[in-house]
Amino acid sequence: MIKNKKYMKIIGLYGRGKCGKSETLGIFLRSLLHGINISDAEVKFGKDKDMCESVDRHGIVVDICPPGDTDDIVKANIQFVEQNPCDILFTVTRTKGRGRKALDNYAKSINAELVWIKKNYNDDLDAIGQKEANKRLAEKLFGMI
């Protein structure tokens, strides 16, 4: 558990598998890491998408953990946060299950505010439309810092 941490906010994107949760956080992370606009951020599988990072944004420490499909991954994300204390954590989980419960329990254990955001997959959108929807959500996340 993080010691001497006065306040932490956790933003959890949740949804079914393959709905764009990790891609959305990957876009958000890449934009923060490289100082580029969301509209210019593209995410490829690998380094920028599948790892946790800690970023200082104007004095606010932001941890971003894009992977989260299993409870083991969510627990690894929590370990990352324990080693890299932050003001805000952005992470993902599936809609229900042990991973989501692990994040709920962690938030309670450190008295953090936990905000859940549902990430939907729109069957009516093509691949380009899905990417644009992910970018719009990534922009919304910026407003939460």
TrEMBL record:
Source organism superkingdom: Bacteria
Listed name of the protein: Uncharacterized protein
Source species of the chain: Xylanibacter ruminicola
